[in-house]
Specification:
alpha/beta, Rossmann fold, eight-stranded mixed sheet, 5 helices
Length: about 180
């Protein structure tokens, strides 16, 4: 696993053995970040189910303003912290809590970009988008990027969130949502 672009381009992340994590492949990560390229500089980013911190680190590498990484799994938190130490990154705030509790309790400034990559074994994408739609983590201009299994339930609308793009990578679907107000 490596950082694809930006100031940490080519830097390797720590290797790990963890059955609960299936990191976003370089191909998918590159596609996501190419699509968000103009949105990233200075953006306030939220990485839900952060796993290894790979998406959060890629966002910082590409000049996001700040990143909040939310992860509950102790092994994942260790991996994230090792990656941040390895690259000497201080712009990422790691929040060790349940993602759904975080969404319910969040009262801060909304995020510009939200990454959602729940554990592939859990099939949580539908539930996660439902919760995000009811939370205060986004604003009218936010973009929500959801990774889900190829056969996992994911609707086109979680009002006011509307899917505006969908990319199929076989066993993984990447969906892009943004608020739509009439």
């Amino acid at each position: 696993m490596r950082v694809i672009s930006g100031k940490f381009k080519g830097r390797e992340l720590v290797s790990f053995k963890a059955d609960h994590i299936r990191p976003t492949t370089d191909r998918i990560k590159e596609s996501i970040f190419n699509k968000l390229q103009s949105e990233l500089p200075g953006a306030k980013v939220l990485d839900l189910f952060s796993g290894t911190g790979s998406l959060a680190i890629e966002a910082v590498s590409r000049d996001s303003g700040s990143v909040t990484a939310v992860e509950m799994n102790k092994k994942s938190l260790e991996i994230i912290k090792k990656n941040l130490q390895l690259l000497k990154i201080r712009e990422i705030e790691v929040v060790g809590t349940d993602v759904f509790k975080f969404l319910k309790k969040y009262t801060g400034e909304p995020f510009d970009i939200i990454f959602c990559d729940p554990p592939f074994t859990e099939k949580l994408a539908h539930k996660l988008l439902t919760e995000i739609a009811q939370s205060s983590v986004y604003k009218a201009e936010s973009i929500i990027v959801s990774e889900s299994g190829g056969k996992e339930l994911l609707l086109d609308e979680y009002l006011p969130l509307i899917r505006f793009d969908k990319r199929d990578y076989g066993d993984k679907i990447v969906s892009y949502f943004r608020p739509h107000y009439e």
